[in-house]
Specification:
alpha/beta; three-stranded mixed sheet; about 220 residues
């Protein structure tokens, strides 16, 4: 996946004077899910004022603008496409951790989420405290919303926005309809894709195909 997404990221970073690196090695040394690597990725490159930590399934548009400044005490995250599964009352909206923007002064929040490890509740345990998203996502949502230190970013477009994971994975006709819609002149999917800065290619999309049409 990174063969298609990283060159886009590197081009975007270079156009705005950002340094850029691709991390393929495991950083964590204890028994945690690999998703937690992103919460301590900053340790590999100390000394920067701001860090942008991006999953390798996020394809950026080359002409995307630089990131705006915001309150350095907060962590910037995008809204997850699935908002109906989180029940924890302190989480006002579910943030996705595929694109994280954090200033140096707020790295301690990522470190705290890392040290806490797995969030102890899930969305189906009838606790009323579940947070949608496994591993780092639930852990970071928990910390940031407890402290009211999350800044909402608008960066990307999810192909299954509004439909949820189940719709995308269980309906072949929905997936086929989505791909066909990208070639129709007045398609809402095509319009949203054109307006977005990044495409989060979740659930087995085709990076070669999207690298051709998403520019």
């Amino acid at each position: 996946m990174s063969n298609f997404t990283y060159p886009r990221l590197a081009a975007w970073a270079a156009s705005h004077g950002y340094s850029c690196m691709l991390v393929k090695k495991k950083i964590i040394t204890d028994d945690r899910a690999p998703h937690f690597n992103k919460l301590i990725a900053h340790r590999l490159a100390p000394g920067f004022k701001r860090y942008i930590i991006i999953d390798d399934d996020l394809m950026l548009k080359a002409g995307s603008p630089p990131l705006p400044d915001f309150d350095e005490s907060k962590v910037g995250l995008c809204e997850d496409p699935v908002q109906s599964n989180t029940h924890a009352p302190h989480v006002k909206w579910t943030a996705n951790t595929g694109f994280i923007v954090v200033y140096h002064r707020s790295l301690h929040l990522l470190e705290e989420a890392y040290q806490n490890g797995e969030y102890p509740y899930n969305c189906w345990d009838d606790s009323g405290k579940g947070i949608w998203g496994p591993h780092d996502q639930a852990a970071l949502n928990n910390i940031l919303f407890q402290k009211n230190l999350v800044h909402q970013l608008v960066v990307d477009y999810y192909t299954n926005r509004g439909k949820g994971w189940h719709k995308w994975t269980q309906s072949r006709f929905y997936r086929l309809g989505f791909y066909i819609s990208l070639f129709l002149p007045f398609s809402q999917n095509k319009k949203l894709l054109k307006q977005s800065y990044g495409l989060h290619m979740t659930m087995g999309l085709y990076p070669r195909f999207f690298s051709l049409i998403f520019k």
